[in-house]
Amino acid sequence: MGSEHYPLRTSGIYRNLPTFDPSLKDLKAIVVGATGISGFNTIRSLLDTPDRWSTIYALSRHPPSSAMMSLLTPEQRPRIKHVPIDLTSSGAEIASSLKRADVEADHVFFYGYQHPQGMSAMDPATADALVEINVPIFRNFLDALALARIQPKRILLQTGGKNYGGHIGRARTPYIESDPQPKHLSNNFYYPQEDALFAFCQEHPGTGWNVIRPFAIVGAVPNAAMNFFLSFAVMAAVQSKKGKPIFFGGDIEEWQYEMCHSTARLTGYLSEWAVLEDKCKNQSFNAQDGSPLSLDRFFEELARWYDVKNGIEGPELDESKFQTIKLAGGKDSPLGYGPPPATKVSRSIADWAKEPANEGAWKEIMAESNGQVRTNVFEAGVDFSLGDFLLHRIGHPSVAKLRRFGFNGFVDTMESVFEMYQEMAKLGVIPPPVVDAARPMI
Prior knowledge:
Layout: E1 9-11, E2 14-17, E3 27-32, H1 37-46, E4 53-60, H2 66-69, E5 80-84, H3 91-100, E6 107-110, H4 127-147, E7 154-158, H5 190-203, E8 208-214, E9 217-218, H6 230-242, E10 246-247, H7 252-256, E11 258-259, E12 262-263, H8 264-276, E13 283-287, E14 293-294, H9 295-305, E15 312-313, E16 323-326, E17 342-345, H10 349-353, H11 356-368, H12 385-389, H13 400-405, H14 413-426
Parallel strand pairs: 3-4, 3-6, 4-5, 6-7, 7-8, 8-13, 9-12, 10-15
Antiparallel strand pairs: 1-2, 11-14, 16-17
C-alpha cells in the first residue's frame, strides 16, 4: 500500500512526513555525491527510520569526515558503507570499485556534481563549463551500473531550479514540472543528464526514474559550493565582531519579496518518498519547503542570532545609489516576451567579502574560538555571490504536483536555516548562533 494509507509523522523541525508499509525494510541504497550538501543530507533522511534502509553505500572520493559523522546517531553510523570512487574515471573503473565493495542497490540517488573553479554556478556564462564537467560523470556512472550488473528499481537524479531558466531571464511562473525547458537559449547540464537517464531506463526496463528539482538549497556540510545562506552568517559574525550593522544591498521590493527555498533534509524525505511510491515512477517533482521567506524577516532574526548590537541597514531608498542588473527579456528569455527583469543593488556581499578588514576580523574570530571555528571561509572557496543572487526575484516553484501525488512534508525555512547554522558550527565552519532557537514564522 502507498504512504497515503499511513499516518504522517514529525521528525524534529520536519513535519507531515510520510510513513510507509512496515514490510518495506532492509533496503539498500546507493547515494552518489555522499559528502555534498544534498547527498549527505539525503543519507540523514534515509537513516531517520531504523529498519527501512539497512545499508547506504556512500559513493564519493573521500569518506564523510568525522565531524560530519558526528551529526548522525551511533545507531545510524554503522549502516553507512563508504565506497571511494572518482566519477571522472571510466565506467569500467567505477564498476570495478562497485564490484570490489559488493555493492547492491534497490534504489540509487545521484547527487554527483563538480563545480568549475572560480566561476559562479548561477551565472549563465558558466553553462558550457558545467556541461563539460557534469554530463560525463553521470554517463560514466550509468555505464558502471550496467557493467557491475546492478539493476535498481529506481534511479533518482537531482537537478534544480535552473531547469526553468529563471536565472537567464523572464520566465513563466509559478514553475511547473511540465514547463518546456528553454534549451534554445542556453546550455544546461541538467538536460543531457536527463536524456541519459531516460535512455538508460529504456534499455533497462526494470529500472524507473525520478528527477527532483530543488531551489536555493539549505543544508550543512563542510564544503558546500551552493550554500545560499552561508555568506549571511559570515557577514553577521564579522559585523558583530566589528561593532557594525549587517546590511541589505537591494531595494525595498527585494527586501519584502517572498522566496521559496529547499532544505536538503526535507528534499531527502521527498526523494525517499518518490522512489518508494509506485505511482511516482518516471515522474519529476519540484522541491521546496512550503514556507516562503522574505529577507526582511530573515535579517531581523539573523541580527538576533549573532547579537548584532548595531542592528540592520535596510534597503537603500535613494534610487541614485543603485546599480541595475538586467536579465534577459523578450525573445531572449524563457517566457519569450516582456521586459527584462531588473535587480537593483546598492551594496554587494561579494564585494564586502573582498575587503581585507573583514577577513582580518574573521581570523580574530577563529583565534578566539579555542579551535571551534577552523575554516577560513575567505580562503575556502565560499561563493559569496550566492548571497547577492538571492536579491533576484526569479519566481516560485509550484508544489501542486507534489500535493496531488501525496507528499505533504513541511519545514519552516527560518528554523531550517538556524539548524543549518548550528550544524555548520559543529563542523567548524562558522561560530554558533548565540541564541538557542529560531523564532518560527507563526
